[in-house]
Amino acid sequence: MLLEEYKKLVDTIDYHMNKYYNEDEPEITDFEYDQLMLQLKAAEKEHPEWVTPDSPTQKIGGVAKREAGVKVTHDVPMLSIEDVFTKEDVAAWVEKVQAVHPDAVFSVEAKIDGLSMTLRYERDSHGKLKLKLAETRGDGLVGEDVTANALVIPDVNQYLDLDYESLQLRGEVYMSHEDFDRYNEEQEIAGGKLAANPRNLAAGTLRQLDANITKKRGLKMFVFNVQQGPQELTVSHSDGLDILASKNVPVVFHRKCDNLDDILAAIDYIGENRSEFEFDIDGAVVKIDQVDYRNDFPTSAKYTSGHIAYKYPPEEKETTLLDVELSVGRTGRVNPTAIFEPIRLCGTSVSRATLHNQDFIDDLDIGIGDTIVVYKSGEIIPKIKEVNHSKRPAGVVTYKIPNVCPACGGPVSRDADTADMKCSNPSCPAQLERHIINFVSRDAMDIKGFGEVYIIDLVRRGYIKDIADIYTLKDKRDELVEEGIIGKEKNTDKLLSAIDGSKENDASKLLTGFGIPNVGKAAAKALMAQFKSIRAIMDLTVEQLTEVNDIGEVSAKSIFDYFHDDTNVDIINRLEAAGVNMIEAEKEGASDKLAGLTFVITGTLPTMGRKECQELIELNGGKCAGSVSKKTSYLVAGEAAGSKLDKANSLGVTVLDEASLLEMING
Fold it and tell me: What is the pTM for the complete model shown?
């Protein structure tokens, strides 16, 4: 068999695979299909160099596994769209366009909160327009090959009924609210980790190595642009989308507008109906409809010419305050949380928001039964904006935090010079419970399997009175098994083994676990990097502590006081006697190449997880922060970087990809 004949056979089998597996409309019998596959296998046996990962012989059920990290250089750059935040900005942009092109018209579209993907179609050996490549946006110039996964998205057509030699379409891949909720329900039942929002889950799903997982989770896609194509699709943007829609290509909601009033009306329509969409939106895109006009309005190398994106104010909704839940933190602080009728905001269901303290409650004048307005700050954290007092039921009064601890019944009083209400009972079990939960958490001693339920039970039954008692639980192993606190022998031994293994942790984790006020993971690492042992830190003065990077006067005083408290010194002595590591070992590969630099990590990196990237930065002397600010030295950005990348660019922060970071370290 010649190579051209082989390629034609592959195209034929791909076509029939698609008809059978994806469209449920087979055109040939199983016997005929099997005969084609036998021919293909014989050809590949004779010419193994012809076999590629997307060959029909390499697929299961019509689905191939994706190869990780296969990079693709875009034919047409997949750039971002410049954001504007007021309708005055929209009007100014439209006026600028019409000053150059008075006949300009516009397309207003829903900006779906998903991730971009370009589909490249080419005519195959049977004369059909076939999907040859699907690529993610990446850094805008280079993306990742996700063809295998794109083929299992129902909205992605493997073949298009269009008489063109080639075509490139760009669209947005997203997850519907229904599929997102279904995924989280399944995860909850299975005891797995819940996804934060549809956009992040969609991004992770599209990049799965096993396309069967992608298919099971469910993704959808709208096309919003013709990247390359014939004139009939690229003269008028809106008309091109309409032609595609007539050929069963799902296209984004769009409305052609002749003037500013129509544009603003379309923006309002999308905003007012955002809750009716099955997907999240994060704005409305305004495009010059005449594609040729767009190049007359370049903005920068980062942004697509002839487009702007209007960003809506944070989504907000009214609901009813049902209750105020009180909890006690490890410092004794009483934390009030509003519990309200569940509402959907920015694609997720929310029913809780912090009330901070009594001053915040008084300022809002909020009471149980009130109608409240809830919004999402930064599209992530639910917050209470205000109370609609016009809807206040009779008898509702402003809520007051009780002066009795909800955990122990001890007295609660207001801290001097703060708005915090604190339990003054030093034996309050809730404070100890929170302290232990912090101690075993991932950022501290990372004792896997030591869940909150076990901690509360062990504290309330008297097995744990402080953090050192955790390492004496092994002496009560038989008693714990008999009482079934942790479970049967297997579960108990598993947890005791995890506790014993934590003794070998980095000493910085122990220091973090102490829960010293104002001393988190970053400060603990800075201290251990400089002084190498807990004992050395215990001997420092306040003045010496303030000389450490990241340690201010308040933190220094907290550290000094903690290590000069007799109870804490006794706990440290017992931890040391139990064999808990208190000395920071020199790590292989450690360097100071990134010393003095602060990094923020965002997006999906090609080969490393965020935690792995953070550990690498810290191993080489750098510091990692959670948000971008003027103090950020570098942003390490992967695929789907989002708002942190925008903020870094606005502040002039240097952006690195994974390869550039590794070059800084290894160069």
Answer: 0.57
